[in-house]
TrEMBL record, chains A, B:
Keywords: DNA-binding, Transcription, Transcription regulation. Residues 26-145 form the Cyclic nucleotide-binding domain. InterPro entries: cNMP-bd_dom, cNMP-bd_dom_sf, Env_Response_Regulators, HTH_CRP, RmlC-like_jellyroll, WH-like_DNA-bd_sf, WH_DNA-bd_sf. It comes from the Bacteria. It comes from Azospirillum isscasi. This is Crp/Fnr family transcriptional regulator. PANTHER family: CRP FAMILY TRANSCRIPTIONAL REGULATORY PROTEIN, LISTERIOLYSIN REGULATORY PROTEIN.
DNA sequence: CGTAGCATTGATCCCTGTCAAAGATAGTGG
DNA sequence: CCACTATCTTTGACAGGGATCAATGCTACG
């Protein structure tokens, strides 16, 4: 696991007004005049799998908008075990807690090569004072995080391992039907579902044998959605 | 379970500027002139145990500041089972999601007689436009909810039932050391820990026999904190 | 006094954690 | 080119924990 920044490639300075995913990102409906307020540059950074955006406990300097790729938020328990509490994808924001003056709550680790915009705390705070439009965006991000946290609890931490896994596949398949679902190893899978990695492996194997999923390549799955629905509901 | 409002006793119209827990509540650092902006009254409502503040799926009209008592947020799964995703106590806010135009995500049920301030959505939105101080407060509330959600996942939904129960007692005892911990039945206990109610009952019984807790009256416990710490860590 | 609701306890089965070993796969260096 | 290692996945065996079904206490209340 690499340290923050060591393998972050700086792609350039963000030009929000011409952002390709403008309607998704935090600064999406700011105007040019809003950006005149800030003079700190916003860096676009690319991270490779395994890279760490930030670690739990660090004093937070920045938030990160995820432009592409996949990032996991990991929380470590006193006894050493770890749990993945959230997955961040295109449009999500990592590190919101710095806006209330807290250190980072989680460790953010890249699972699939990710492009991000690093937004210094001062920039967000400054813009936030001036433009009410940003407030709405910020609240939406808080809401999304909270919503996902609740879903994670009720769907991925409740019921048998079979049901949890089925619900995870369904969730990951949801936003790209017919797109293959990408995972990142059985260990992480277990950490998402709150089960041991052997159980995760066994359950995936069972799904493969039953034809609920097909592993086209390592950690690349195509899913039989209706079959998985049935498992998620009836066990 | 009673329907929203049926047994809500209206205590009067809130006067935030003289609020007894002003430093805790959402509107705590607003000034009189801020309130001049609104003309909709803020009601103070008292709810009895079992009363429902709102139900999942309803179009949200208001948020609720909890002034005293205890409220659970419940989420129902497609298969009918239910899970308690959060507990709200003095100073917490229920129903933040209405601020981003969403219907209520959970059903909010009173566990211990609760006094609340009902804040109509329009009031919060109006004030939010005018005063940046409220923004900071709102973000703190989002943060608190998110933080509690993450804690809930890692502490109360991970590990054996014994550890989960120990951690729950510790969490509830945390803000009132030497104060007895109040619960609300084994069914709810199970729904918080993600275990069956029989398991919850058995585990509580075991803790009582071991002297980790003493049930002074039904659902009223005093705790041996150090002993519970040990259980939470070492199993 | 009987009933309704909740808590406790028992019995049983299955799931999952755990320890352990045996396949895969990719990368390294001889 | 192939052995060799490191890493990850799969599978096995087994014990323990929790779910589930069911019966029995317990308390409050009509």
């Amino acid at each position: 696991m690499h340290r923050n920044g060591i393998d972050a490639a700086r792609l350039g300075t963000a030009r929000c007004s011409s952002c390709a995913i403008r309607d998704l990102v935090l600064f999406g409906d700011l105007r040019d005049q809003d950006f005149d307020l800030i003079h700190i540059p916003i860096d676009e950074l690319r991270f490779q799998p395994g890279a760490v955006l930030y670690s739990a406990g660090e004093e937070g300097g920045s938030l990160y908008t995820i432009r592409s790729g996949l990032v996991k938020l990991v929380q470590f328990l006193p006894d050493g075990t770890q749990r993945i509490v959230r997955l961040l994808r295109r449009g999500a924001v990592a590190g919101l807690e710095v806006l209330v003056g807290k250190p980072y709550e989680h460790t953010a680790v890249v699972l699939q090569e990710a492009e991000t915009c690093r937004l210094p705390r001062a920039v967000v705070e400054r813009l936030s004072k001036e433009t009410p439009r940003l407030h709405a965006r910020l609240m939406e991000r808080w809401y999304q995080s909270l919503h996902q946290a609740d879903e994670w609890l009720t769907e991925l931490s409740t019921g048998s391992a079979r049901r949890r896994l089925a619900r995870l596949f369904l969730k990951l398949a949801a936003d790209g039907p017919d797109e293959p679902v990408l995972l990142s190893g059985r260990e992480d899978l277990g950490a998402m579902l709150g089960v041991g990695m052997e159980t995760a492996s066994r359950t995936v194997a069972e799904f493969k044998r039953a034809g609920f999923v097909v592993e086209q390549a390592p950690n690349v799955f195509t899913c039989d959605l209706p079959a998985l629905e049935a498992v998620a509901l009836d066990g």
